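Structure ticket #2291
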Amino acid sequence: MPKLWNETIETHRHDVREAILDATIALVVEHGPLSVTMSQIADQAGIGRATLYKYFVDVEAILLAWHDRQVAHHLEHLTALGDQPGDARARLQAVLEAFALIRHEHHDPDLAALVHRGEHIGRAHQRLVDLIARLLGEAAAAGVIRDDLAPGELASYCLHAITAAASLPSRAAVLRLVQVTLAGLRPERPTTQPGARKRRRHKPT
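Resolution: structure written out below.
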């Protein structure tokens, strides 16, 4: 098969697949993930049911593919924020804020129950942990966050805290959550002894 013809076929298949994913999520937003049928998806995408079944066996398979695409896009965006110019703490804050807003704006309990499982979720989560841990390590080396815990451990704490963004009522509340999380990362300052403060206070001039 000529290379150009093969590339044309692959492009067509990619476009059809993308149309199926876009049609499915549009229906999910309108009707909910548990009410969407393959017939509705075929109609929405402008293809026949037989064609649809050549790509996916059922609605759940489509939703998993759509979620994989979303996760890949989100990880690409977060990685780009982590790699942008600037100090490590500013880049860490940018990544945490972006992830928190993703959790806040894209949380659907019914959809999450269908797609938040399987090996692909574990791999995506590990990539996110690795990204946050790298930024934490850089910030700790710069002395702008605490260095008494391993970056991987701190990354897990941060991500567990940020998941609360899904239940918060507003964008402002989400950003406050990130600030509270970052406050917990501040390096500990040496505590001045009360007696020493008293001696300095009464030191004769």
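Closing remark: The two ends are 94 Å apart (CA to CA).
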